[in-house]
Amino acid sequence: MEALSYLKHFKEVAEHEIMHSGHVACPGCGAAIAMRLALKTLGRDTMLIIPACCWAVIDGPFPYSACSVPVYQTAFETASITAGAVRAGLDATGKKGINVVAWAGDGGTFDIGFGQLSACAERNDNIIYVCYDNEAYMNTGIQRSSATPWGAWTSTTPGSDYKKERKKNLLEIMAAHRIPYAASTTVAYPDDLVLKFRKAMSIEGFRLIHIFSPCPPGHKALEKNSILEARYAVESRVFPLYEVEDGTKYTLSMDPPTRPVADYLDLQGRFRHLNKKERSFIQQAVDEEWTRLMHRMRIDEAL
Amino acid sequence: MKNKNKNEREVVFWPGNIVVAEAAIAAGCRFFAGYPITPSSEIAHALSKRLPEVGGKFIQMEDEIAAMGALIGASLTGLKVFTATSGPGFSLKQENIGYASIIEAPCVIVNVMRGGPSTGLPTALGQSDVMQARWGTHGDRPVIALTPSYLDEVYSETIRAFNLAEMLRMPVFVLIDEVLGHLSERLEIPDPSEYELIDRPRPTVPPEEYIPYDSSQGDVPPMADYFTGYRWHTTGLNHDKTGFPTTDPKICQEEEERMERKVSSNLDKIISYDEFMTEDAEIGVVAFGSTARAAMVAVSDARDKGIKAGLLRPITLWPFPEEPARELGKKVKGIVVAEANLGQMIYEVERVAGCNGPVIGSNKVGGVPIYPGEILEKIEELV
């Protein structure tokens, strides 16, 4: 496997700045960085459909609004179906060459929008669905979502009642719909993100990009550590970078050095309450998931 | 911070959303299912900690519809249940609110109202769900909506909401707004001996004689908890007294009328209101919730100017306090209806007050409260 380049492809798109200053994201927001990189790659012929989530406000008020592409802020549960309908409308009116992108947080994807997301995937609606995943309802005050990892503090999983359920495995669920393209990426690897958006753009049908997106207030982390947190998430195998084509063809984007999960946990106050045993449980769960992923990678070869 | 006053009542300084959470626990609520939504989320935050402490169950749901569904399921096991939400969530819950109405499941829904339709003004005040509370779900069904104005009243009305829900086996709404939800105020927590807690009527007959919707002893049929030996069939279809579906027009008519009667024949227990300087009033003001606080100042200011104004404050918004509104309508030469919407309760005031003079609105929907001066201007308009 080729070593993942950090900035080679990023440099190719670096000059196209489509997201501008003026946004109202918190300092160190992973979702803001993700949007900047995504729009650079997608170009101006892009339409964003954003449900209730941090990005519904990050774009900012006129005239400071940050994204110089059309934004359609829709109801919480409807990003995928609205995007699907916009695509149908564009098709019917003969408008071609437009990237219709649903851009939703984890609450709008894993929870309230999940039924519609599944339906759009099953219909193979021709859209790019992006979930920027900061692992809780950050916009409404850090409530747990089904993307919140085991062990995390949130405002609705407080104290000793920290979250005791696992995070849903979105990529696997969506891959099981046999959609043409499903990929995970994060902001610490701009090249990976750029390449995955490029690949998604080259494919027709339902495409899903799952972006791990650090959130300093929600993760109780330092703003300056957002990129480090995203990198450690990958290096510790908490958030593997890979892609699945047609639900069957797995490609690992990066085989990371094995960094202990502790390094990742230590960057974030939301895991501070965990004892040694609980932390080693997380390490064990991550190792098991990685082994499962490696097995899935090889299923096709076996077949 | 907690202190005790002379009467040994606990004195606290809490925001309204925390008052709701604590009052629910005091009312005996042991189940909450909810979804994050501004400006009500603090209720869920508080209960995620408090309910497990008292042996209750807190579940954060995946969406608003699920929260309402969960509420009904838990209610059928015999628990006192509630959820909290705001505008868009209240809209999503409406189908299941109708379901709770037809199966007659006691539950409480607190709506911390915010501004605007759709996503609107999530962090700002609104009182725009007056008609949604009344007519939001399809079909005919009785409605109770309580609208406290002060935090001690938020406490007592939340308890009363549980009592009414249990007593009459139906969903009960508490409509507060962003201002009351986030406003902190000194209040004395009443001792449990100071209020009554009511439980749903439960069957007194043995299981084999149990008829789930038997109204022979009154309009509120006894309700058996799941897995206590009593079997009953639960359906959202129109049903007869056995609980099984029917399309018999006569039975459907009788059953729907019985459900309406649960409210219409208990108005004395349900309706609550407050009057301020209405005895000799020449100009009437009607306002509820946080807006009523501004209206009270406006009435005082009008009196200072020599205008005989008086305020009617519905604490029960639905069913509307028709009698006091009619009395007010008789004696005044005009009524100002102040509400943080573009005019909803005004329809009800116009309908029932029978006022010979004009009924005008003092309305605001920008997310900021109506100021006393603005209501005073409308009072002066009527002089």
Structure summarized in a few sentences:
The complex is a heterodimer of chains A (303) and B (383). By secondary structure, chain A is α/β, with parallel strands linked by helices.
How many domains make up the 3D coordinates of chain A?
A: 1
Q: In sequence order, what are the helices and strands of chain B, one letter per element?
A: EEHEHEHEHEEHEHEHEHHEEHEEHEHEH
Largest sheet of chain B: 8 strands, mixed
- Poorly predicted regions of chain B are none
Counted beta strands of chain A: 8
How far apart are the first and last residues' alpha carbons of chain B, in Å?
A: 47 Å
Number of helices of chain A: 12
CATH domain topology of chain A: Rossmann fold
Oligomer: heterodimer
Low-confidence stretches of chain A: none
Properties at a glance:
heterodimer, A: about 300 residues, alpha/beta, Rossmann fold, 8-stranded mixed sheet, globular, B: about 375 residues, 3 domains, 5-stranded mixed sheet, 13 helices, 16 strands
